Amino acid sequence: MFTTNRFKIVTTLLVTILCTGNANSAFIETSAGCQSSGTDTSASCDPAFQDNYSYSFNISDTANSSIFHATLTNTSSGSFTGALIDALAFNMNPGLQLGDGTNTDDQFNIIDISPDWSFTDAPSGAGIQFGYVGTDNTAPHSPDQRISSGKTLEFDFIFHDLSKLLSPGDDPFNLWLLSSDQTLGSGIGGGGDSGQVAVSFQQLGSTGDDSDLLTSNWAPGTNPSPGPGPTPTIPEPTSIFLICTGLLGLFSASRKKS
Questions:
Q1: Which of 35-44, 70-79, 185-194, 199-208 has the lowest mean pLDDT?
Q2: 59-109 per-position pLDDT tens digit
Q3: CA separation (Å) from 157 to 96, 151, 238?
Q4: Pairing outcome for strands 53-61 and 67-74
Q5: Which helix (H) or strand (E) holds 61?
Q6: How far apart are CA 38 and CA 157, in angstroms?
Q7: Average pLDDT along the chain
């Protein structure tokens, strides 16, 4: 006989699993940094700055196969005045047109940006070979909108029609992972560093008047879900809410009867 106590235990377990469990996300990441000793950790460092400035950047999938969430973190520490990130540049493969979808040629957009930054196609000329550049929206650029140590810049990539970008079975992270863009990213701030990602730091040095650009490539093998194809289907928030509500209702009814 399925007793009331057993029913309560089963219901509680189901509510816990469905309502509090998190699906594992696939992701890729990259990072670069300079130490005050002048140690080079995948970037060209200037030992005269005597700062510890660095970043990490990751992109993860979501429940929606057309949306990917990006997080840039300022991982700097021990700076004289506090290194601030004021620009992010990156490449994608293949080169895609950035836009809100009103133009039929628009293939993806960057949305839900926090703090108040904006992304555009990188300006042509002057040796700049990155595809896309993001900066804060204030003019002149405000320190309040720059990314300080321990803080993040977060945003979403949304693809208007993912089927036009990938062949069936392709890993969607190939849009960022493919190596053909590793030597093309250069020219930001007049620098010669190259990579798939570039991050500009301001307020470096003992007086806080210096700046530097760090670059990196997506490290191979950082995607913990190596199989091809988009994110496995997981229940949408609305479905999870309805399931949880129903289970809680059954649990409440059983308590009244006991």
A1: 35-44
A2: 999 999 999 999 999 998 865 558 899 999 898 877 788 999 999 889 999
A3: 12, 20, 22
A4: antiparallel
A5: strand 53-61
A6: 35
A7: 73
